[in-house]
Specification:
Largest sheet: 5 strands, mixed
Low-confidence stretches: 1-5, 220-224, 227-233, 237-242
Distance between the termini: 82 Å
Oligomer: single chain
Strand order of the largest sheet: 1-3-2-4-5
Strand content: 5-15%
Number of strands: 5
Mean pLDDT: 79
Length: 242
């Protein structure tokens, strides 16, 4: 077959074949080096024991971290101030932000149907991402009650429902307002939301959440919204509450 290079076809073909051969050889050498390393380990009982001790230490550290997260309410999607007086919502919010390094806060109204979309996806993502605390705050009567939720809505600039506030190291790093960042439609998946949350560093997305077909389709349409950057952080620790 003529590739359009005339007499150079043969030369190009040889170069391509040589490149493939060199690539295969390098891969083979890498595999052989790994096998040789494992052979040395099998002959080194002290080395194997050290690897075993390191692995046990890693597992113990991971277990301890997971327990700490569970004790703080990570792994579930919870209501802040749901069973308390409205004035306690702000107190719960600031306390949670002090205890957890990363937190996603869904400001919602029960009467707003679009909020149910975020409810469903956050409920699904919370158990998968123990590293982050997932909470929600009902702001239905903020305009009338003037309670704790009203204070948060005003202080944090919550103007659109639904809004996801992303909190990292006690700072509000970004607002996800409505569905603009997830394709501009309510028909997005939990995987799509996880990708956006991972982009902002509020969760650690898994491989399937980081490169789904839905994500690739979205890029080029709304990616400009993703790359706007976070809002200026507000340090919650500067506020005192009675």
């Amino acid at each position: 077959m003529d590739l359009g290079f005339g007499s150079q076809n043969h030369t190009i073909g040889n170069a391509a074949a040589q490149a493939l051969l060199e690539g295969a050889k390098a891969q083979e050498e890498t595999v052989e080096a790994e096998l040789a390393r494992f052979d040395r380990l099998l002959d080194d009982e002290e080395g194997l024991e050290e690897i075993r001790r390191q692995r046990i230490a890693q597992l113990q550290k991971k277990h301890s971290q997971q327990k700490k997260w569970r004790d703080l309410g990570h792994g579930s999607y919870q209501e802040l101030g749901g069973s308390h007086d409205a004035r306690d919502v702000a107190r719960d919010f600031f306390q949670a932000s002090k205890e957890s390094d990363r937190m996603i806060v869904h400001f919602y109204r029960p009467s707003t149907r679009y909020c149910d979309v975020f409810h469903a996806h956050l409920e699904k993502l919370a158990p998968k991402h123990m590293e982050t605390k997932f909470v929600k705050i009902n702001v239905e009567d903020c305009d009338h009650q003037g309670g704790g939720a009203s204070y948060l809505v005003e202080k944090l600039g919550i103007v659109i429902m639904p809004t996801l506030l992303l909190v990292k190291n006690r700072k509000a790093i970004h607002h996800i307002q409505g569905f603009d960042e997830v394709g501009g439609t309510e028909d997005f998946s939990a995987t799509m939301l996880a990708y956006v949350l991972g982009h902002h560093g509020i969760i650690d997305p898994s491989d399937d959440e980081d490169a789904s077909e839905e994500v690739f389709k979205m890029k080029g349409v709304n990616s400009i919204r993703l790359n706007k950057g976070a809002r200026r952080g507000y340090h919650y620790g500067d506020e005192e509450f009675d």
